Amino acid sequence: MTRRPVVTGVRARPRLRRDDQVVVIAGKERGKTGRVLRIDIKRQQVVLEGLNLVKKAMRPTQQRQQGGISEIEAPIHLSNVMVTTRDGRSRIRYDAAGDGKRRIASRTGQEL
């Protein structure tokens, strides 16, 4: 089976960073929060800790003597997650202060 072709063209750089707390706003995990583990810029997807778990059949290898079915985190599209702060979820904007760029929650003005 071949892989799906990656969409080419201009992509916006994601404003999320690793270890950000995000809330899922669409899909089967809607309403749940998790920490960002990985970001795939090319596919515009994120992997969240403990969310969107899928079962994967694992073969026995030299490192893992026993095979079986294990659960791994599957990626979620960037458009389906939103960063969350103490006061709720928010979009991210950048503020160019004298000491460089800072990430700020748009809704609360809180620095991330």
UniProtKB/TrEMBL annotation:
Residue span, KOW domain: 15-42
Gene Ontology BP term (one): translation
UniProt keyword Ribonucleoprotein present: yes
Protein name in the entry: Large ribosomal subunit protein uL24m
Keyword Lyase: no
PANTHER family linked: MITOCHONDRIAL RIBOSOMAL PROTEIN L24
Xref: NCBIfam families: rplX_bact
One GO CC term, this protein: ribosome
